[in-house]
Amino acid sequence: MVGVTGDSATIRISDVQTKTFIAGISGVPVTGTAVVVDGSGQLGVAPCSKRFKEAIKPMDSESETILALKPVTFLTKKRSTRRALRSSVSLPRKLKK
Predict the structure, then answer these.
(1) pTM of whole model > 0.85?
(2) In CA terms, which of 9, 51, 53, 68 is 20 to 30 Å from 23?
(3) How far is the first Cα of the chain from the last one, in angstroms, to the nearest whole number?
(4) For residues 41, 42, 44 and 49, what is the CA-based torsion angle, rounded to 10 degrees?
(5) Residues in CB range of 1: below 8 A, 6 or more apart
(6) Which residues contact 92 (CB under 8 A, 6 or more apart)?
């Protein structure tokens, strides 16, 4: 595998593949920030900071639709030495199909 000009501290696996399968990821619950893949195949996280957004405004009556989904807060169960983490929103399982 040949790197790309300017690469530094970058892992690249081949350069012409169109699919990637990594065993042991699907179905494994984790806490933390969700990882996304952009159109070029770059892994990353979606920025949540106000500086990355525009046209921010109150939801007003639009929030009624979200609240109708009955969002909940919860603590994840402690695993070995990890401490419980609080998650702010979870949608009911019946909606995740």
Answers:
(1) no
(2) 9
(3) 39
(4) -100
(5) 12, 13, 14, 15
(6) 69, 70, 72
